[in-house]
Amino acid sequence: MTMNSVLTRIIRNLTFSAMSALVSSVVAQENSLGQFDGHGDVGSPKHSGSASYDAATQEYAISGAGSNMWYRADEFQFVWKKMKGDFILRTRVEFVGKGTDPHRKVGWMVRPNLEPDAPYADCAEHGDGLTSLQFRRAKGTNTEQIALTITNADVLQFERKGSTYIFSAARYGETFVSSQVTNMDLGDEVYAGLFICSHRADAVEKATFRDVRIIRPVKQGFTPYRDYIGSVLEILEVHTGKLSRIYESTQPFEAPNWTHDGGALIYNISGR
C-alpha cells in the first residue's frame, strides 16, 4: 500500500459515503468555529448569544435571543462565513429544550452585511414546526415569506444559484420539499451561516446543528475524469444517522476495496 492510499478500519454497522461526485466541500478550518469565520449578535438583542464547535462530535451549539427577524429589522445570533459565488448549505438541526415561543426559529441565513435592516434570504424552522423561506428584498423593507408544505423538518438545505435561492427541507430519511425565490440580488460576496432567534426579547434559545456541510458546486464545463475537485471520506452510522467526516483531500478518491479479512477498506488516491 502506497502513501497515497487511505486505510480506514470499519466498525460493525457503519457504512462509508465517499462524496466525490460533482461537488466539493470547503475544507473545515481548525478553529473554535469549525468551518465558519466569526459569530455575533445582529441588531441589539437584550441578551447576548453564543456559539461553539465541538471537534470531537462535529456539532455546533448556538444560543441567541432577539425579539424577531421580520418587518424592517432583525435581532438574532449569527455564525457566519464570507462567501462568493454559488454554494449549497446543509445541516440537521434541533432545538434544545421546549422553548418559550412558538415563533422561535433556526436555520441558514445569507445577507450582504451585518446591519439589522440589511436585505437577506434565509431558510427557517420555527418552534411550532413552520418551515419557511424568508427574504427581505431591499434594505429596510418588510420581510416576505414562502411557507413550505412540510412541517417539523430537521434537515435544512439552502442553495444559491446566482440570484436564486432554493430552500429544500425534509424530516431525516424522507424526501426533500423545496421552494425558491428569484431575483434576489445580495451581491457576490455575502455572509452565509447559521442563525437562531428566540422571538422574545427576554428569552434565550439554544439549538444543536450537526452534519453541517458547506458545498461548492463545480464550475461550468466540468468534465468527470478529466477535471478533478477532490473528495471527502465520511462514516455514516446507519442505526442513528450520525455522519462523521474523517478525511478529505484535493485529489480524487477511487476504487475502494475490502482487505481479505474484511476489516478495512483501502481507497486509492489519483489512481495510486
Count of helical stretches: 0
Q: Characterize the overall form.
A: globular
Major beta sheet summary: 8 strands, antiparallel
Q: Calculate the terminal CA-CA distance, rounded to whole Å.
A: 9 Å
Number of strands: 23
Would you give an account of this structure?
The structure is a single chain. The protein is mainly beta. It folds into two domains: 1-22 and 221-272, no CATH class; 23-217, Jelly Rolls (Sandwich), CATH 2.60.120.200. The chain has no helices and 23 strands. The protein has strands at residues 6-9, 14-18, 23-25, 38-42, 50-54, 59-64, 69-70, 73-74, 76-83, 87-96, 105-111, 120-126, 130-136, 144-151, 155-161, 164-170, 177-181, 190-197, 205-217, 231-237, 242-249, 253-258, 264-269. Strand 11 and strand 12 form a beta hairpin. It is globular and about 60 Å long. Mean pLDDT is 88; it is low at 1-30.
